[in-house]
Design brief:
454 residues; alpha/beta; Immunoglobulin-like; Rossmann fold; 3 domains; 5-stranded antiparallel β-sheet; 9 helices; 19 strands; 26% helix; 28% strand
Length: 454
């Protein structure tokens, strides 16, 4: 058994003479020690005479080698409205102190903390009572930055940011964060778009009023002439009017592809509800390889069907992040496939779609991909690291934001209307999600019954 060696030096000079069988106890606290075997060496002095001793001890602590708090941390910038940036820092709750800096790089959009102009600086920590605090320039709160902590994540919102390119740095203070392999700090880029130019106010002069009056009089006269002409031509069709009506083609209906890995029965039932809800809200056709109505179309050539839909510019792609999706992703990285205990002919389609997205080196699908997570079901460590963009929508909390972004990034000339959403569909989706979360709580190891693991 390999043991780590720790030496302690204890000096007991000036101690009074001790009777036989008496002892001196010295308490030593070792913080942040990994669980494992240690060889504890201690040297103590009595009246300038040094004595050394060794003992081997297996220490059981809360820290394990595979649970490095610096791993699985990531930051995700997210523009929520004009001049406002929301930054999600996932898995940061284990750090006692976090320093954050937002810089504005000069020239090329390259992040260099030493040369960039610092725009914001703040520190997140806990007070003596364990209350989370966000401080900047010695103040607890300020008008430009607000941070809050929930679960293992921290969410900071930056207000009133001017347009331009920015770099976000975060530094974690922890004894096991190794600065050599960049585990002590992370950085991320984000861009605030420019505001549209303000509309110029038209100067209203006396000449303008005269011109408008003349135009209005001409329009009234023309309308009277048209009405009289129509009445005289009673036998003529309405299509024989003197003015021509130009017909414009209707905007092409946008299409949405749902991409997710097959999961438990409760999850698949919830996805049917979510598919119908998404189609009702966006007024778009939603494609899903697990939709029984598309079975004949998918069955002709399922791999070509998936690849053509992912690569087509007509499709927005909504990807579901889950534990099973991460297992498929790991299999893709190791050139293997996931084996289900009860396989179906559609199981491998998710890994083909995921490969098309991750192989997109030119970033053509970047603006068409939207990654969602289900609150209470998707684990914090369930993160598809090589799938961009890194923005994540946590449903149902970010459902409205998802719908807005789907419409804003659309090429349609008409934005879908969300005013006629059926509250019953929303309630059904919320109920199905609660059933799924409750099922996972009652059987946290259900994946072992679904997937064959090596």
């Amino acid at each position: 058994m390999l043991c780590v060696e720790i030496f302690l030096a204890l000096e007991l000079q000036g101690q009074p003479a001790l009777p036989i069988q008496a002892s001196v106890t010295q308490s030593v606290t070792l913080k942040h020690v990994y669980q494992g075997c240690y060889r504890l060496g201690y040297i103590y002095k009595v009246d300038n005479k040094a004595t050394q001793n060794l003992m081997i001890q297996y220490l059981k602590t809360a820290y394990k080698k595979e649970e490095n708090p610096c791993d699985n941390t990531y930051i995700t910038p997210n523009i929520i409205k004009r001049n406002t940036m929301e930054i999600l820092m996932a898995n940061f709750s284990k750090f006692d102190r976090i320093e954050a800096i937002v810089t504005k790089p000069e020239g090329d959009f390259t992040c260099d903390e030493k040369t960039d102009l610092r725009r914001f600086m703040w520190v997140m920590s806990h007070d003596s009572n364990g209350t989370f605090m966000c401080k900047r320039n010695g103040k607890k709160e300020n008008e430009e930055i607000s941070c809050k902590k929930y679960n293992h994540n921290i969410e900071c919102t930056l207000h009133n940011i001017a347009s331009g390119n920015y770099c976000y740095y975060v530094t974690m203070s922890h004894v096991y964060c190794n600065p050599v392999n960049s585990k002590r700090g992370l950085h991320q880029k984000f861009t605030i778009p420019e505001d549209p130019p303000p509309a110029k106010a038209q100067e209203q002069t006396a000449d303008t009023y005269i011109i408008l009056t003349v135009i209005f009089s001409c329009l009234v006269t023309a309308c009277v002439i048209v009405i009289i002409t129509i009445r005289k031509r009673k036998s003529a069709s309405l299509l024989e009017l003197y003015f021509n009506v130009e017909e414009y083609p209707l905007p092409q209906i946008q299409k949405i592809l749902l991409l997710y890995a097959r999961d438990c029965e409760q999850f698949m039932k919830m996805m049917i509800t979510f598919r119908d809800l998404l189609a009702d809200m966006t007024k778009c056709k939603v494609y899903d390889c697990f939709d029984s109505g598309l079975g004949e179309e998918v069955g002709q050539s399922k791999v070509d069907w998936m690849r053509s839909h992912v690569s087509s510019d007509d499709f927005k792609i909504v990807v579901v992040e889950s534990s099973v999706a991460v297992i498929h992703h790991q299999a893709l990285l190791h050139y293997t496939k996931v084996s289900y205990r009860e396989p179906t002919w559609l199981d491998e389609l998710f890994i083909y779609g995921l490969k098309e997205l991750t192989d997109d080196l030119q970033g053509k699908v970047y603006q068409r991909v939207f990654v969602i997570r289900f609150d209470g079901f998707t684990e914090e460590n369930d993160f598809l690291k090589y799938l961009v963009p890194y923005k994540r929508y946590i449903l149902p909390r970010h459902l409205g934001m998802l719908l807005d972004d789907l419409s804003l990034r659309s090429n349609l000339r008409a934005v879908p209307c969300f005013d006629d959403i059926n509250d019953g569909d929303l309630q059904k989706f919320d109920q199905d999600l609660k059933r799924l979360v409750n099922y996972k709580k009652l059987d946290p190891d259900y994946l072992d019954e679904l997937i064959l693991r090596e």
